[in-house]
Design a protein that fits this description.
mainly alpha, 35 helices
Length: 687
């Protein structure tokens, strides 16, 4: 099994390297060369050919032919190289050429079936939405019925709560843990003081001798806890052992209380050094002492609480829940027990039970406990009750106005229900208490970007990145700056994101967009190819690869990736539009018509697609459909001069001379300066 897995990984890596290498090769041949360079390349190709190194010769000749498809000398030498290689290998020259031009297509084809399968169950990635152009920008088209290829647009900034960096998440978790620990310590201290007063009242009822014995035991326990707090475990053991040995007979409640105090003392020793031998021994002693306390007085809740802390620390959440349930049952008025039970339920994903536990605190046991309100809000979000969550977060803030975690949580919840203004206000409140809070800065940046305030978005995101650099913020900065048209800067941010997380397909795609925008076609091809390899269900990089291949005249390669994009998403406007272009370029007009029709279904009033569909109909010999499409386009846009021109020619092809003359005459009357007036006049003169 491991061998098979390893083999699959190696194949995937090889495929990715092949795609990238071929992409790089394609770009290299697109670069313009001087005449002297051409001569050198021809000479070198001839030298390789003479040596029998046919592949190197063909590589050089491919480059020259791509630069100038009419380079007769290069083509003649290419024919020689193909023939020579065919004789040497036993292959046909045309097969060798097809193999060379189709290597990338074959590489991607090997994954086509798995890609199609992945598309049917493609995972939703809301953290990285990518934009789709609403119009394919087909221009005026050409006589063959094709239009310029259109690329997918830039992804929008992405994030929400998922954008919190690891550093900020760690800081938030640390702050929450500290707040909970402080609250727990206060609650435990309050409870201890209450117990002390109760104990004093009970002692007052005892005889002088018994009271003195009990006070001596309490003193020993106190000495033991002080010793363990100072790290003197041996002295603590001695004091605790002496306290147990001094317990008066017949006083079960007092014994239970003593054992519970000792259990807490040992637990403190464990927390002081949890990985040391003394700490590990202490946690075992704490567990034993808690069990002794329960045997002495089954109605005492404290040992159950101590055990819950031990089980929680040792990653036994179900046992922690069980002990806390017992503690709450035995002491239902202790708000700390109910609060900790809520946390324990949340940890094991019992959100409804967690909600009820937190509500018992907020509505009855301690309505001024802000942590309970905050955690109630978090739980309500897990239950998809945003209204309840917002109410809880606001209650927490009312109790503690500088409660940063609550302000941020409220902001995220407001953003999730599209209350952008409210969300911005919440994050602004956070920043009023902590101007360098990365979560608030990052989320504010995303909200500004979403509301058409890119300058503010850039400022906020840049500050967040300066405080806590992370790939997602760099990606979002790239998207914002790209939208502002500052492509070189956008490229810098895209590189930061992709360098930080090279395995993220969205970051690679953004890198490709930015590289293409600064005319670095080589880098764009590499990035798009890598994005396609990383995410088998990602349509946009395949669309853009297809566009670049179409622009370079590599129609078969374009068809490979565009067909793949179409299988992934048959409703992709850009994939269908560009397939219409590609099939039209190949003279496969029925398929060209099919994909233009699909594109028009997706954007019914797109004038460019309508024009190109009509031209494709003409090329496919479906003149009536072409006529009707031109007429519909002119209804939408009475100034569609090219459509009127083509409609006139279509009428002529249908032998409808009267309508041809009427349409073309109307064109010249409405647009006297029509750029192709001479051609129209020539047609009219012949009618």
């Amino acid at each position: 099994m491991e061998t098979r897995t390893r083999t699959k990984i190696i194949v995937a890596v090889i495929a990715a390297v092949l795609v990238i290498a071929l992409a790089v090769t394609l770009v290299l041949v697109l670069k313009a060369g001087a005449k002297t360079e051409r001569a050198n390349m021809l000479a070198l190709a001839q030298e390789y050919l003479a040596r029998g190194d046919y592949d190197r010769a063909l590589d050089l000749l491919d480059q020259l032919i791509i630069r100038n498809v009419n380079d007769a000398e290069a083509r003649a030498l290419q024919d020689q190289a193909l023939t020579a290689k065919a004789l040497a290998t036993g292959q046909k020259p045309e097969d060798i050429l097809a193999q060379r031009l189709g290597e990338l297509g074959q590489s991607l084809k090997r994954t086509a079936d798995s890609v199609a399968q992945a598309a049917s169950s493609a995972r939703s990635q809301p953290a990285y939405p990518s934009g789709q152009a609403t119009s394919p920008g087909a221009g005026t088209g050409t006589a063959s019925g094709t239009s310029p290829a259109a690329g997918a647009s830039a992804p929008t900034p992405a994030g929400s709560s998922a954008s919190t960096s690891a550093q900020q998440a760690a800081r938030d978790a640390e702050a929450a843990a500290k707040a909970e620990a402080q609250a727990a310590a206060k609650a435990e201290a309050d409870a201890a003081e209450a117990r002390r007063r109760e104990q004093e009242a009970e002692l007052a009822k005892k005889s002088q001798e018994l009271r003195e014995r009990m006070e001596a035991v309490n003193a020993l326990v106190k000495r033991g806890r002080e010793a363990i707090g100072a790290g003197d475990y041996m002295k603590a053991d001695a004091a605790f052992d002496q306290a147990v040995a001094s317990l008066p007979a017949g006083e079960a409640a007092f014994a239970a209380q003593t054992w519970a105090d000792i259990a807490e003392g040992y637990y403190d020793g464990y927390k002081r050094a949890p990985e040391s031998p003394d700490g590990l021994a202490s946690v075992k002693d704490a567990q034993r002492a808690a069990q002794e306390a329960m045997r002495a007085d089954p109605s005492d809740a404290r040992p159950h609480y101590t055990l819950s802390k031990i089980y929680n620390d040792t990653k036994l959440p179900d046992l922690a829940v069980s002990e806390l349930e017992q503690a709450v049952r035995l002491d239902p008025n202790n708000y700390l027990y109910s609060f900790q039970l809520g946390l324990a339920y949340y940890k094991v994903k019992k959100y409804e039970q967690a909600k009820r536990a937190f509500e018992s605190v907020t509505t009855k046991l301690n309505p001024k406990y802000e942590l309970a309100f905050y955690n109630l809000g978090v739980t309500q979000r897990m239950l998809r009750n945003d209204t309840g969550a917002m109410s809880a977060f606001r209650s927490a803030i009312n109790l503690k106005p500088d409660y940063i975690a609550a302000h941020n949580a409220l902001g995220l919840t407001l953003a999730s229900v599209n209350d952008t203004a409210g969300a911005i206000k919440s994050f602004s409140n956070t920043l009023s208490f902590d101007a360098n809070n990365v979560t608030a800065l990052r989320e504010m940046g995303l909200l500004y970007a979403a509301t058409g305030k890119p300058q503010e978005a850039e400022k906020s995101l840049a500050k967040a990145y300066s405080l806590s650099p992370d790939a997602l913020t760099a990606y979002n900065l790239s998207a914002v700056v790209y939208g502002l048209g500052r492509y070189p800067e956008a490229l810098v941010w895209a590189k930061k994101a992709s360098d930080s997380v090279p395995s993220n397909a969205r970051y690679q795609y953004q890198l490709g967009l930015c590289a293409e925008s600064v005319s670095d076609t080589e880098a764009a091809l590499v990035a798009y190819a890598k994005a396609a390899e990383l995410d088998k269900s990602y349509v946009d990089p395949r669309v853009n690869l297809g566009k670049l291949y179409l622009d370079a005249g590599f129609i078969d390669r374009a068809l490979t990736v565009l067909d793949e994009a179409y299988r992934l998403n048959p409703k992709s406007l850009l994939a269908n539009n560009n397939l219409g272009v590609a099939y039209g370029s190949k003279g496969m007009y029925e398929k060209s018509v099919f994909h233009y029709q699909k594109a028009l279904e997706l954007s019914p009033r797109d004038k460019d697609i309508m024009l190109n569909l009509a031209k494709a109909y003409v090329s496919a010999g479906e003149l009536a459909k072409a006529r009707d499409t031109y007429i519909e386009l002119i209804k939408i846009d009475p100034k569609a001069w090219t459509a009127m021109h083509e409609l006139g020619k279509t009428y002529l092809s249908m032998n409808d001379t009267a309508n041809a003359k009427k349409t073309l005459s109307e064109l010249l009357a409405k647009k006297p300066d029509y750029e192709k007036r001479a051609e129209v006049e020539s047609i009219l003169a012949g009618l």
